[in-house]
Amino acid sequence: MANETKLSEKKLEIPVLPLKAFLEFEVRDRYGKLITRRKQRAHSWVRNLYNLMVCQAAAVAGDSAVGLALLDTSGAIRSDPTTQPASGEASSGTSNRRIYVGLGYGLYAGAGIDTFGLVVGTGSDPESFDDYALGSKISSGNLAGQLAYSVTDAPVVSTIGTTKRIQWVRYFNNNSGDAITVNEVGMYTKGCISSYTITYILCRDLVSGGVEVPDTGQLKVTYTIQLPYPA
Q: Can you give the pTM of this predicted structure?
């Protein structure tokens, strides 16, 4: 059966397992000197993302009765038997016919906002398909143990050959007075289901070996998603 599927994909010119994601980390010291650069494959999308995609693609509701509810970042079940969940807040609040795209919605978080967008943490528990939050999210700020979250850069969409690529970038400044090691990174989205505005995680990846951000240093996180299309 597996071979037949691959042959069908080849005949129809459908890419095999095409969707890929990557994380890149750059750390600079107070003088702007690059001291760390690391890139790794991002692979830990969670159940929320799969449920969201199924609901959107199949035009079905985010209903817990059929195993398609979302978990918000507090672990609460968000379910509605008549409404599709969305990444991005619905313009009417109770309907997903029009979804806002822009700063303040989806993954596009403003400065100092640590409740959605690219977020980082110090947790090191193993990745799980059922993760609903980072293990220990670092709060935005300039106090001990905090990183100042910058406004999310406007998403960059590009086409390279037949591959469509989108990149999300966010900077984190360390004014805490001590070095901070980032062990995990995630993508929280501000979305909605039914009349609720909710925040929920789409992915959580451990940072291989951790990335240390020195005091007065800056961390840049780039999350890249790419999808090759048939020529």
A: 0.89
